[in-house]
Amino acid sequence: MRKIVDALRAGYALPSRPPWTYGLVCGLAIGVPLLIGAMLNAPHEGASVALGAYLVAFGDASGIPYGARSRRLLAMTAFVTAGVGIGALMRPVPWVAVAVIGALAALSARSTWVGLPPVLGMVIAYFGGTSPGAAMLLPLTALGGLVLSAAVLAPWPMRRMRPLREAFATAFETLADLVEGGTGTPLPDARWEPLRRAASVALDDARTAYAYYGYPVAAVDRAPGLVLEALVRVFDETVALRSLRQAAGEAVRSTAWPEELDRALSAQARALRATPLGGGSECAAEAMAAAAGFAEHVESVREQALAGEERLSASAILGQVRRSVERLTVAVRAASALSLESARPAPRLPRFSLPAWPRWEQGLGAHPVRLGAITALAMALTIPIHSHLGKWFVITVLVSLRPTYGDTVDRVTLRIAGTTLGSAAAAVVLVLAPGSYTLALIVFVSASIGFALRGVSYGYWSIFSTPLVMLLSNYAVPLGWEAAEIRVILTMAGGVLALLGARLLWPRGERVRLPLRVADMLDAHAALARALAGQRLDGFDDLVDVAGRAADKVGESLDRLAKEPGGQPPEALRSALTYAGRVRDDTLTVAAVHRVNEAGSARASGLLDAVADRLFGLAHAVRTGERPAAADDLDEALEEVASRVGALARLRRGEVESGRAEQMTPVRREFLFIAAAHPALRTLAVDAVKLSAAVERGVPAGRGRRRPGRVGGAAGGSVS
User: Fold this and answer.
1) Which of 82, 143, 372, 705 has the greatest number of CB atoms lying within 10 Å of its CB?
2) Would residue 186 be called left, alpha or beta, if left means φ above 0 and alpha means ψ between -120 and 50 degrees?
């Protein structure tokens, strides 16, 4: 009962402002054909046009660019029309309809290109009710889809670049928050991670938006692509600065530099926020001046180190902080100098290239097969009824059965509640004021409110979509209390069947997929360390993205596992996701040091190879169920790095005393790299060990397991 109450409370919450304008457009596209049909004494024809518009609107995806959206809507119109036609043709052969509709339901769950609307159209057409005749059904359905497409796409020629600008503006804002989060006392992970996550998601959204606009924007103006590259550099350097700042705080004796660094970072954040508003150039100039002031202070610390008043390793770390600030400043200036307003391609018809087929939805496991089987069963159970009302039983199964049992419970609860309220409301209104114009008004109001709320509340969508579908699919049948009662009963029966299907057919599939996804995550993070060991920085950001997506898939599996019967996601794997994020941050910091110090170090490469070997070995153990390999040499490799830092510091001090302070000798080059990278390497080793330990606790593999080895650092202490 508590789960039902929680589902109702969440289902009727409004987390964001509904798009009322979009809802009004859909309401007009669906309601006006009914009104015209009533005026021309052709109600069935008007209902067929309105139903086509409804089904295409059901498959619409708002917020994507003009060309991509137009392709999607026109393709959906073709699929819906085909589905309606096939459904009408199968009326005389019900057992063929059982097989075909079940197969198409499975395809709709598997293919992102087909979706659910063609299946709904096929079901509605098969059960019939009323129709204008087979000769007119297909063109009228297609006309409805085209009317909806034209209405939805009408504003795009005037504001076709709006989604792109909005995506980039959000990226600028979230990156400004991230940069600002690096000022002052370092934020704890609990406060830093949401900022990092928001910036990463915003960059992904901006990358997706630009990919949609790849043609024709890229052919006219490369500015958006260059801005995106600059924003990625801002993200990388900000993440690296957090670790470098912590290391500098432990090593540098001077206490004045943090204030100068905060001033520089705050100026960068202001420049990022001002860029979408048109004031980025002025703020970027201020940011450059603030960075120059910080560089002067770092130079004074270097002079103190050369004079023996400060440690050389501290100067090297602070020097790396300065170089990261400079790279951040250059990236912010580049993003501010490139104006998105210059991307103004001339209006043109969208390109209709064929999609890569098939476009499969990943990570669903056996759900498509389950949905197809339960839908076919629902169709078979309706054959003895011989009533057009049987469609509600099948439709409830189609829209309620979800990939997990918990999601199915939530969806069935909201579906039954919405159907009860919507059916009763529609019946009351029609009893008080029957007639074609009343029907058209109810459809218009229900569509306008329902499609506005659909993206933010499934509960409200269920309430308003109920009278909408009932009226459109059975336009000539009087909708009274009896029809409302039957609809509620069939909806409840369909919900029960959906729950049984989710509970009995492959209810625990995520438990099988989770270990494989954990292994993929370990492999992706091991690849980061291996690339750094070989000093392969080309495409490193892509490797970081791959590792982040692999971790996201593990998080999705844990969320789904929690919704399976008896599912209890291991808390250790939640911790593993946190440590995986730290590993990515550590590798970004080491990569930042590599970009300005190409010399590298054999000791550092040895440590990075040891980290990669540990993660690769554990991934193999998780994937095969074998026991992990014997303890590795992470401790030894880290001790070698620490001793190398000390040895190079002594050699470098000798060079300074001999008058070679400004010469870029091999000793100085290696010292600059390894002294700056040592803190990040140390935390990388520690986080890799913690990641391994968390995975071993969360995904047992084999018996007689060893305990993770300990990693010690030059600063003292070993970390288990």
Assistant:
1) 372
2) beta
